[in-house]
Write a structure and sequence with these properties.
The protein is α+β, with helices and mostly antiparallel strands. It is built from 4 helices and 3 strands; from the N terminus they run H-E-H-H-E-H-E. The radius of gyration is 28 Å and the shape is elongated. The N and C termini lie far apart (about 60 Å). The protein binds L-tyrosinamide.
């Protein structure tokens, strides 16, 4: 049967084969939203404690940690890492708990990038 004849047959019977299904041509690769984790300066937390926090929870070398601690000390705050929501939330909670247990007022917060 010719294409014209098929179409005419469909028109009469409503026997339509492609009923509005859109097929994906590309796979979805959506990235999750990211969050900056920051630490804030204060007048009381010892420098060595901040360095230890950066090594322990943010995987920095001693030299990297010392440098970033000094940035926070001078500028007031710095981004210490960028993570997905759940990981950022966990880092903030771990740092805040660790600081509180050592009775230091160190503050750690997160913000959408
Ligand atoms: N300002 C603190 C001091 O002089 C050191 C410090 C650095 C505290 C970074 C907090 O996030 C901080 N002892």
């Amino acid at each position: 049967m010719r294409q014209h004849d098929v179409m005419m047959a469909d028109k009469k019977t409503g026997d339509d084969n492609d009923v509005g299904v859109v097929l994906e041509t590309r796979p979805k690769t959506k990235r999750p939203p990211l969050y900056k984790v920051m630490i804030l300066n204060d007048d009381y937390t010892p420098m060595e404690f901040v360095v230890h926090v950066l090594e322990r929870f943010f995987g920095m070398s001693h030299a990297q940690a010392f440098e970033l601690m000094l940035t926070v000390h001078k500028k007031g705050l710095a981004v210490v890492g960028v993570y997905t929501h759940e990981i950022a939330e966990t880092k903030v909670a771990l740092v805040m708990d660790f600081a509180q247990r050592h009775q230091h007022p160190l503050q750690c917060t997160m913000e959408k990038e």
